[in-house]
Write a structure and sequence with these properties.
Elements (H helix, E strand, L loop, with lengths): L17 H24 L5 H17 L7 H14 L2 H17 L19 H5 L3 H4 L20
Helix pairs in contact: 1-2, 1-4, 2-3, 3-4
Length: 154
């Protein structure tokens, strides 16, 4: 274990959790996608924000393999939007997902993730979603993490 009491050692990073790190990554992605879209609209060089968005999506691929919503399939669709150059749609989708995650709105039974005003250009992306991600119907939402291969010490 690292001793952080010495003055030469850096201070400890503090308590941090995987859910918080995941949310921070989604927030970073939202900012980076908005920046990317803005640079594209202003016809500026957007290679840096694109690389940063790609980096955030790579991190989310790791995180989302442990969560049911939005899940790895959704992150893969976001990567497709980035590669196709649909930065406006990417920014909109990331903003919507981040809003749902921050407010835990996706856990409510009445959440519908269908086309809304201003999302016509993105309808093919939304149609590709599995039914379980478009509408959370009559069943309550929950996630289960199964951990295997641990001993009594872990």
């Amino acid at each position: 274990m690292i001793d952080f009491s010495d003055k030469g050692n850096p201070s400890p990073p503090g308590p941090y959790s995987a859910p918080q790190m995941r949310m921070d990554t989604w927030n970073d992605l939202q900012v980076r996608c908005a920046w990317l879209n803005q640079f594209r609209q202003e016809k500026r060089d957007f290679s840096e924000p694109k690389a940063l968005a790609k980096e955030s999506l790579a991190q989310l691929c790791i995180f989302e393999s442990y969560w049911g919503f939005p899940g790895i399939e959704r992150v893969n669709k976001l990567e497709e939007l980035l590669e196709r150059g649909d930065y406006g749609d990417l920014s909109t989708e990331v903003r919507e997902l981040t809003r749902l995650l921050i407010g835990d709105a996706y856990r409510q039974r009445s959440v519908v993730l269908e086309d809304g005003p201003g999302h016509e250009a993105n309808s093919d992306f939304r149609r590709d979603r599995p039914q379980s991600q478009r509408t959370i119907g009559n069943k309550p939402y929950f996630e289960v993490l199964v951990v295997d291969g641990t001993d009594a010490y872990d």
